[in-house]
Amino acid sequence: MKQGYIAALWLAMWLPAAAPAQGGAHVHGAAHLSLVQEGGAVTVALDSPLEAIVGFEHAPKTAEQKAALTEAAAALKGPDALVQLPAAAACRLTDSDIDLPFMAADVDHGHAHAGHDDHDGHADVTASYTFACAQPDKLDRVTVKAFARFPRLHHIDAEAATAAGQGKAVLDAAHPVWSLPAKR
Ligand SMILES: [Zn+2]
């Protein structure tokens, strides 16, 4: 985990705006995606307004809203609904960490509990996936699948820190392929 911590620290220093927990902007339809590569360890992390994923940002009130949350939780369990890494990089998922608001056990009570959403009435989803990649130098792009799966998601601000360098991109449904920094 020390490696991941250093990578996260490095990214946080390099990209002060990339750490949503530290006050990143909450704009509906806009999500952040980060990729950090250190050797064979690659972490891809999404931070999105809950609205873009399920269409609301409060405790579920209807059967449809509960189903939307359950479906989102299932979709985010693995990385496939969000991103596809190049097969040549031979990446294997080793860890994931999903934080989907209102999916706690007490959601079934059917009413909102203080502290589950932000004080301003907004809520964010975070999902991070760690991979072990056998050929990390083949990691030249990320294909973002999230626009197809979550049509409310309008665009993604993407930021990468890899062995080849650092890069930023703005991705949307028409431009879902993120070219990562290339070796010079
Ligand atoms: Zn919101």
From TrEMBL:
Entries under InterPro entries matching the protein: ZrgA-like
UniProt signal peptide: 1-21
Keywords attached to this entry: Signal
Name the UniProt record assigns to this protein: DUF2796 domain-containing protein
